[in-house]
Amino acid sequence: xxxxxxxxQNLFEQLLGAPLPVRIRAWDGSQAGPPGAPVLVVRNRRALxxxxxxxxxxxxxxxxxxxxxxxxxxxxxxxxxxxxxxxxRGEDARGLVEALRDPEVRAAxxxxxxxxxxxxxPAPPPEEVRRVRGHLHTKRSxxxxxxxxxxxxxxxxxxxxxxxMVYSCAYWPAPESEGGTLEDAQRDKLELVSRKLGLSxxxxxxxVGCGWGSMAIHAAREHDVSVVGVTLSHxxxxxxxxxxxxxxxxxxxxxxxQDYRDVADGxxxxxxxxxxxxxxxxxxxxxxxxDLFKLLKPGGRLLNHQIARxxxxxxxxxxxxxxxxxxxxxxxxxxxxGTTVTQLERAGFEVRDVESIREHYALTLRRWVANLESxxxxxxxxxxxxxxxxxxxxMAASAVSFERNRIxxxxxxAVKTPETGGSGxxxxxxxxx
Length: 433
Hints:
Layout (H helix, E strand, L loop, with lengths): L3 H13 L6 E3 L5 E2 L6 E4 L3 H8 L3 H10 L2 E4 L2 H9 L12 H4 L3 H14 L22 H12 L3 H8 L20 H16 L6 E5 L5 H10 L2 E6 L2 H13 L6 E5 L10 E7 L10 H11 E14 L12 H7 L8 H10 L3 E7 L1 H17 L1 H7 L2 H19 L3 E9 L18
């Protein structure tokens, strides 16, 4: 009798201490769980072994990337239903020791072990980062981390991001249901950054973490400024340089493969840092802020666009998300927006405005997922099935996290205010003159 799904449902509910909100379909064809709900497809027993040897998020991630687990139905709905049971429990594998003191939980684990088959730990998927010992956020380790994330092929990013080639939160004029294209929303975001920075003809802009050159091109073309864009990705730089040449902007835009810590040709009138500071790390953040402060002329502006997490009661317990760290952004760290503001102020900046655009990122991510899913065969050919599955899960789970206010994204405008006290900003800052 095919009953693996029912057994799994019972075991998972014992372990989680709550009803499973999704349906299960097991490798033997059996199904169990609430009718009409998204279906968690357990393709083989190896998925269970991954969970047993790496309980928590990393085990789930490995099973997903390897194709041992899948979702049949709307991925966003499934992740939203599972979020409260898995990602928002707060402990992941660290709570397992305490949970195992419960006899029913121990019995459930023994049941999973029996159902999983021979106890051999499956090898991690090849897409998982292979760790190199050493200090975090050195120039060398940052180059490796950036290469892992960005040097997967420009064609893949073209498929996901669309023509704008902007890999950060777009700025939507209205709810998605009321229309508006991703390209328009990304253009509006670049223009918003430009207006906050007060860009005007003849100024110099430093774009830190310039990606594929979209901000640099927009600032030079629309505001007639000279731009230096820096990135650690050789693939990004080559792509950006070609775009700059195609736009006829080589006299105003320079793209460098350079660490921001090595930029020494200031002062600049303005600095944009869009979706880059998440890579800096807590230990290096003040250094990052000080370096940018030094590169600005008095009265110069910094626009720091950065994802933030919710603060914890005990910040010493913060740990990097296991899935993101192993498969997406190695060594990436999120900080509460208050921490970011404090570090910028410690560096000497006057923080003049903080704008949360959290809901905008959820809309952006949903568009990226739609782009990926609409040409799935091409995506898997350009990278690998496992890599494409990483990006699909990462973007969909991130969209749900933004929607549930687990993470946010903020634009922080800071000024290197001179000793005279004149910031150069209008009294009503949201007019962005």
